[in-house]
Amino acid sequence: MRIPDGISSDGELTVLNAYQPTTSPWERAAASMQDKGEQPWRESLDLTPQERDPQRDASVSQYLLVGFTLPGLESEHFRMHPSQKKQMPVGTHLDPTSVTDTPDALLPIMVVVQMQEETEPEEATTLYALINPSHGLCTPHRLAQKAFFYLPMFRDSAGNLNTRGPAWNPLVRSICVNSPSAEAERSRLYTAKQKLSRQARRTSKVVLGRTRSLQGEVSLLLECFLESKQPWHLKELRTVLSEAEADLEHLPRPSYEALLDNEATDWDREDSEAMIREVYEQWPDLRSLKLMAEDVDLMKRQLVDEDIWVEFRLLRPFIARCKEKISGRVHKGKPDMSGICAKSLKSVKTLFGVCESTVPISKEDQNRLILAIKSTLEKILEASRKFGRDLKESVGDQLFEKMTSILIAQS
C-alpha cells in the first residue's frame, strides 16, 4: 500500500485527537452506518483543528498514527509473492490481481493506538481504525492485528505475517507513552543528524550513518579551494566548522585551571596541590610518580622565569620527565636543580616530535592526491547509481511513496 500524500514517511510522528475508543469492530460499525445512509469515512487526511487542539476534555483522547487500512481487504493482499520466496525481484511490474478497486472518493483509513501515561512491556497493543467523523473528530473502533499496513518507521525486517505484530508492536508501545523515555525514543526516530543528512529510520531503503573526519574534511576543502578558487569550497568549509562547533557545545569544558596556567607569578603551595590533583584526575597512571608540592613549585618557577611554554599534548610526558630528573638529582645528592624544565622539554620534543616538524606536501603531490580522490569519488558515485538501479528492480514500488493513487501490491 502506498503512503498517501500529506503523510510523512521520514520518521516524523503524527499525534492527533479523537473520541474515546469503542470495542465494536470497525467494519461492522461502518456497514451499520452505511445501512442507515450515514457516511463513515473521512473527507480528507488533513488533520482538523479539533484533531490538533492541545486542549481537550474527558471525552477526547490522544492517539498515535501507526498505519492505514482499506475496507474489503482479502487474505491474498497480505501473502508473500511467489517470486519473493525464490529471492527474485518483485514490484517491477504491476500485477492486476494484486490491485483492489476502490471508489475514488474513499481515502485510506487511519490506524492508531491510544497514547498512555504508562505501559507494561508485555501489554498487548490495541489498534483502532478512525471512522465516523463528527464535529472534526473521529471515533476509534477495534481493528484486527493483521488487517492493516504499518508505516515504514515502525517496521523492521520481519517478513512473516504472523511475526510482524510481535516484532513491530514493542516499538509502537514504547512511543505511545507520555514519559521521558518515550520522548527519548521519539527523538531517536528522527534526530538532528538524520534531518541534516535527510535520512530516516526506514527498512525500505539502505541508510548508513555518517562517520565524520573533521581534519580530513577541512584539509580537503582548503586544498580544493586553493586549486580551483571556487567559493563553493569556502561555503562548505563554513558549514563543516559550524557543525563541529555545534557538536563541541555538548562536550564538557576543561576545568584544569592550575594545570593550564603557564603565566601565574603569585604561585603558592595551595596552587601546587591543586595542580597535583588535576594531574592525577587527568592521568591516573601518574600517581606512581608521587608528585610533591615542592616538585610542582620548582617546575612552575622555571617555566615562568625561563619563559617556557609546553604544548598540552606534551604535558604528561613533560611532567613525568621533570619528576624523573628531580628524583635523580636528589638521589645523587646534587642540590642544583637549574635547567630541569628546559632539558626535559627538549627530551620530550625529541621523542614525540613537534607540530612544525611535519614535512609539507609538495604541489605536485597535492595534485596527485586530489586527482586520486576525484577518481575514487567518481567510482563511488557510479557504484551508488548501480546499487540504486539494482535496488529499484529488487523492491520496485516501495521506494515511490508519494503517489496520488492507492494501490495494494502483493508483499
SSE-based structural type: alpha+beta
Quaternary state of this entry equals single chain
What string gives the helices and strands in order? EHHEHEEEEHHHHHHHHHH
User: What share of residues are in beta strands?
Assistant: 5-15%
Count of discrete structural domains: 3
N-end to C-end Cα span: 9 Å
User: Low-confidence stretches at least 5 residues in length (pLDDT < 50)?
Assistant: 190-209, 396-411
Radius of gyration: 33 Å
- Number of alpha- plus pi-helical segments: 13
Number of strands: 6
Largest sheet: 6 strands, antiparallel
What helical percentage do the residues reach? 40-55%
The shape, in one word, is: elongated
Overall mean pLDDT stands at 74
Biased composition (Basic and acidic residues): 35-56
Region (Disordered): 27-57
Q: Can you characterise this structure?
A:
It is a single chain. This protein has 411 residues and is an alpha+beta fold. It has three domains: 15-207, no CATH class; 214-248, no CATH class; 280-357, no CATH class. Helices cover 42% and strands 9% of the residues. It has 13 helices and six strands. It has helices at 26-35, 49-52, 82-85, 161-175, 180-189, 192-196, 214-228, 231-248, 269-282, 293-305, 315-331, 340-352, 363-395; strands spanning 15-19, 60-69, 109-114, 128-134, 137-142, 149-150. Strands 1, 2, 3, 4, 5 and 6 form a six-stranded antiparallel sheet that branches. β4 and β5 (137-142) form a beta hairpin. α9 (269-282) packs across α10. The longest helix is centred in the last third of the chain and has 33 residues, at 363-395. The protein starts with 14 loop residues before the first strand and ends in a 16-residue tail after the last helix. Mean pLDDT is 74; it is low at 190-209 and 396-411. Residues 35-56 have a biased composition (Basic and acidic residues). Residues 27-57 are annotated as: Disordered.
